[in-house]
Design a protein that fits this description.
Enzyme class: transferase
Cofactor: dipyrromethane
Radius of gyration: 19 Å
CATH superfamily of the largest domain: Periplasmic binding protein-like II
CATH architecture of the largest domain: 3-Layer(aba) Sandwich
Largest sheet: 5 strands, mixed
Oligomer: single chain
Strand order of the largest sheet: 7-6-8-5-9
Distance between the termini: 46 Å
Domain Porphobilinogen deaminase N-terminal: 2-206
Structural class: alpha/beta
Helix content: 25-40%
GO molecular function, one term: hydroxymethylbilane synthase activity
Domain Porphobilinogen deaminase C-terminal: 219-289
Length: 302
């Protein structure tokens, strides 16, 4: 099983490996593969976006050096096709999708409302930046990359950040217990979902991996990814989207596209039968485009 070498990626992969070992009675060896995205410390757009987290792993999978790979689905670009011959055979049951704001351990600030005007908030996601701009336009939201522990280290070291925003699922997977404020914002497409990739031609491995596939998560992913593809979204696109199976069995999808400062946004919310996720995502994308999403994604001023 190939995965990135960050502590979070390794923990996630080992969790999926343990589940496969339990269900299929096989032994899974986790292999860390350092990617260009992990080596590069600057802006991801300089490497072509979040695809930089996947290219080396894709090559290892296509070359047969690994049999399967685990990715955070939110890091899979929506504007470029996946390599020919690879297939996501499983989407592991979705974890928490919430974003949480964290504050320095040694400090009096304990919530978003406590932050002074002009406070520096670190995040690498334009989606978070845009929605924070809606909530507190007086904050200075600045680019911050790195693994979870390094970001927390920078926050606590007094390097100038008054708060940072992380995925709550990341903290839970790493066993980090830390007080923070859950933000009322729409998550990223694919948030909280681990996707298991393999070669389509390896039918026996495809069948094995499908043992960890979660039906409702796959339905939600189908809708969210179809929306992202329809919008031609990439890592620098201020797009948010979240699908869920409602109590009556219908599939719902909320999609939003923002100006980068959050001053303007468009929104769409629709329902469909649970097996029509692709159609639902395509419809929501077209509705957002009718409302002006293309200009917002391309950064054209309103």
């Amino acid at each position: 099983m190939g995965t990135r070498t960050s502590p979070l990626a390794l923990v996630q992969a080992r969790g999926v490996a343990a589940r496969l070992e339990e269900l299929a009675g096989v032994r899974v060896e986790v292999v860390g593969i350092q990617t260009a995205g992990d080596r590069h410390r600057g802006y991801l757009g300089e490497l072509g976006g979040k695809g930089a987290f996947m290219r080396e792993i894709d090559r290892a999978l296509l070359a047969g050096r690994v049999d399967i790979a685990v990715h955070c689905l939110k890091d899979v670009p929506g504007d470029v096709p996946r390599p020919e011959g690879l297939v996501f055979a499983a989407y592991v049951e979705r974890d928490d999708t919430a974003d949480v704001m964290l504050f320095p351990m040694e400090g009096e600030v304990q919530c978003l409302a406590d932050l002074r005007p002009g406070a520096r908030v670190g995040t690498s996601a334009v989606r978070r930046r845009a929605q924070l701009g809606q909530i507190r336009s007086d904050l200075r939201v600045e680019y911050l990359r790195g693994n979870v522990n390094s970001r927390l280290g920078r926050l606590d070291s007094g390097e100038g950040f008054d708060a940072i925003v992380l995925a709550r699922a990341s903290l839970a997977r790493l066993g980090i217990e830390r007080a923070g404020e859950v933000l009322d914002i729409v998550p990223a497409v694919g948030a909280g979902v681990l996707a298991v990739d393999c070669r389509r031609a390896d039918s026996h491995i495809v069948e094995l991996v499908r043992l960890v596939d979660h039906r409702d998560t796959r339905r939600c992913v189908s809708a969210e990814r179809a929306m992202l593809h329809g919008l031609q979204g990439h890592c620098n696109s201020p797009i948010a989207g979240h699908a869920r199976v409602e109590r009556d069995g219908q599939l719902s999808l909320s999609g939003m596209v923002f100006a980068r400062d959050g001053s303007v946004f468009v929104h769409s919310h629709e329902l469909s039968p649970p097996d029509k996720g692709g159609d639902l995502g395509a419809y929501v994308a077209s509705d957002l485009l009718r409302k002006g999403a293309r200009d917002l994604i391309d950064g054209i001023p309103h």
